[in-house]
Amino acid sequence: MDTTGTSGVFAREFDAIDRAVEVGFAGGRVISVSFPAETPSDAGDDHELLDRIGAYLRGERDEFADVAVGLTVPTDRRAVLEVLRDVPYGEEVSVSRLARLAALDDNDPDDVELVTEALRENPVPVVLPDHRVQGGPYATPGEVRAVLRRTEGL
Q1: pLDDT tens, position by position, 55-114
Q2: Is residue 44 part of a domain?
Q3: How confident is the model at residue 123 (pLDDT cuts 50, 70, 90)?
Q4: Residues 49, 23: contact at Cβ < 8 Å?
Q5: Is the residue at 45 inside a domain?
Q6: In Å, what is the CA distance from 37 to each residue of 14, 67, 117, 134, 144?
Q7: Cβ-contact 111, 105 below 8 angstroms
Q8: Domain limits at 81?
Q9: How many domains does the chain have?
Q10: Closest C-alpha among 130, 70, 141 to residue 98
């Protein structure tokens, strides 16, 4: 997906989740995804990523792998989130498995805490699919997470 130079906030309401999806861009990269109850009045609603999210919510398979992300999180959390991005559509992993995939020790409480912090503070849910992790915490709100999991057959 080519978003070269895109900056700003775009949002659209989706019946499937009974709320809006708001996406923030800076320099063509997605820097935030949130789920406000209503579409913010100052957000644009015409963006290809919102079209794709709508199709995804209607059951069209999309892993959003080509969406450029601008993560402004500490390096250790970034490593966890980058591995999270590789969890395939329709599959799930445990927090322990995600830790191992990120080359961390799932028996080390500090490493497990690092993984849970990264999940809790995930700035771009859906694109970085924390809903595919079993035993969160999650940045994606519970009711939205349930819809995303059903959409993917989880």
Answers
A1: 999 999 999 999 999 998 989 999 999 999 999 999 999 999 999 999 999 999 999 999
A2: no
A3: very high
A4: yes
A5: no
A6: 10, 24, 25, 25, 11
A7: yes
A8: 75-151
A9: 1
A10: 130
